[in-house]
Amino acid sequence: MLKNPRLQSLNRRFPKRPWIIAHRGASGLVPENTLTAFVLAVEQGTDLIELDLRLTSDGHIVILHDAALERTTNGRGFVHEHTLAELQQLDAGYAFTLDGGATFPFRGLGLRIPTLEEVIATLPQHIGMNAEVKSAPWDPADRRRGQVIAEKLVTLVRRHPDLRERLLVSSFDAAVLDTVRRLDPELPLGLCTLPIAPLPEQLRSTVERDYDAFHPMDIGFDEHGAAVVSAAHLTGLSVNVWTVDSPARAVELAALGVDGIITDYPEATRHAIERALGSFVQRP
Ligand code: G3P
Ligand code: MG
Q1: What is the pLDDT of residue 3?
Q2: Quick one: angle between helices 199-208 and 221-234, nearest 10?
Q3: Residues 169-186: what's their mean pLDDT?
Q4: Is 65 a catalytic residue?
Q5: Cα of 23 to ligand 2 centre, how many Å?
Q6: 18 and 111 in contact (C-beta within 8 Å)?
Q7: pTM of the model
Q8: Which of 83, 84, 140, 153 is the most exposed place for a label (fewest CB within 10 A)?
């Protein structure tokens, strides 16, 4: 793989491939994007956690996937319409169910929407962070919120120099990534892509913009995976695939040489890859 100076710290800290990246924490087992999900992912041996960043009405970064509160919490409306104090009253375990809605085992247990600062304070320093900045590129106000998150993230990294060593900033919105690049040219950036174009074209847009990691959905890898992974590595890009919840599929992608598996089940994924491939592959 071509040497990419912006990936140097992450590669040094996490030399084995593939990285296990816990998607919204261990979100297949406990409520997503909560401290509980991140701590469980750590206990399950994840390398990095993936988490979704959004902005409150009073300018704090909180961790929630959706723009709206209804799917995962007992709140109503959009995250950006609420203050941090209001959001902290909500039950982030309210809607989680493993049996199609028959039971809600985390409801009322006190799980909260965390701030980014709380996650940083909670995570052990050996765990990496794939911080995905949420932004809807078609909505100028939401894109601006994404860019504000990017600016705040850069400021936060200045206050937490250890974070710089283990942070990957990702987004579907290039404008957000370009904001980070402008303010802190050394931070590694990953572009999340959707399968609206063939996989090689998604890779091309990532290469052309000089990002450091390619974060595609797991679609098109059976046809294009080997070529795309080789091409990405030739240009110094990591390939981190989402969301891979079948351990057998994770093994196939690992065998193709992808750099990261973004999964809701970090432990099952790690075990399957260890069983199938003997041990994780050390980077050359
Ligand atoms: O970061 C990869 C993945 O999380 C992107 O999709 O919708 O789960 O945030 P989403
Ligand atoms: Mg995400």
Answers
A1: 83
A2: 20
A3: 98
A4: yes
A5: 7
A6: no
A7: 0.97
A8: 140
Contacts of residues 64-72 at CB distance under 8 Å and 24 or more positions apart, as own/partner, are 64/33, 64/113, 65/24, 65/32, 65/33, 65/134, 67/134, 67/136, 67/142, 71/95, 72/31, 72/32, 72/33, 72/96
- Tell me how long the chain is: 284
Cβ(244)–Cβ(266) below 8 Å: no
pLDDT digits (tens, 9 = 90+) for 185-239: 999 999 999 999 999 999 999 999 999 999 999 999 999 999 999 999 999 999 9
Query: Which residue's structure tokens are 């970090």?
Result: 266
Q: Which amino acid is at 107?
A: R
Per residue in 64-85, pLDDT (tens digit) is 999 999 999 999 999 999 999 9
| Phi/psi of residue 244, nearest 5 degrees | -105, 100
Q: How many CA atoms lie within 13 A of 16 on its CB side?
A: 14
Dump pLDDT digits (tens) for 122-151: 999 999 999 999 999 999 999 999 999 999
In a mutational test of the pocket of ligand 1, which residue from 24, 66, 242, 261 has the highest number of ligand atoms less than 8 Å from its CB? 242
Determine whether the shortest distance from the Cβ of 214 to ligand 1 is under 6 A.
no
Ligand 1 proximity of 65 Cβ (cutoff 6 Å): yes
Q: Which helix (H) or strand (E) is 167 found in, with range? A: strand 167-171
Topology of the domain comprising 5-67+114-277: TIM Barrel (3.20.20)
What CA–CA distance (Å, rounded) separates 264 from 52? 14
Q: What torsion do the CA atoms of 242, 174, 145, 153 make, to the nearest 10 degrees?
A: 80
For the chain, the structural domain boundaries read 5-67+114-277
Distance (Å) from CA 33 to ligand 2 centroid: 9
